[in-house]
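Justification of resources, computational component.

The compute hours requested in this renewal are based largely on the per-chain cost of generating structure records like the one below. Each record pairs the submitted sequence with a full structure-token output. That output is archived, and it is also reused by downstream analysis tasks.
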Amino acid sequence: QVQMVESGGGLAQAGGSLRLSCTTSGLTFDHYAMGWFRQAPGKEREGVSCIHWSGSRTDYADSVKGRFTISRDSAENTLYLQMNSLKPEDTAMYYCAARLGGLRSGPEDFPYWGQGTQVTVSS
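The structure output for this chain reads:
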């Protein structure tokens, strides 16, 4: 059974930083592309960043480029999202997701999801 648990969310001031983690179990982590998505109230879920199963390729939404960094630790079966220079518009529930195989950026391409962690950025 695949389990994915996000942590690290919370309240931050604009300009601040947070580091999200997503611990996984029940899957062969090195075989899975991973992604971070977010959903604000009243909005559709959107892709934030994704990383190839090898870690060799990453992709970012234009809105977070230069501020967020995705990474993965195969020894810990954990996905990370370092978020710097946070803005109030980054406020959302953040989800990690996994898919077997290559890199994709759309939420419809990811079958496995965590329960989410809330990020709130105050101005």
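DSSP finds no helices and eleven strands in the chain. The two ends are 40 Å apart (CA to CA).
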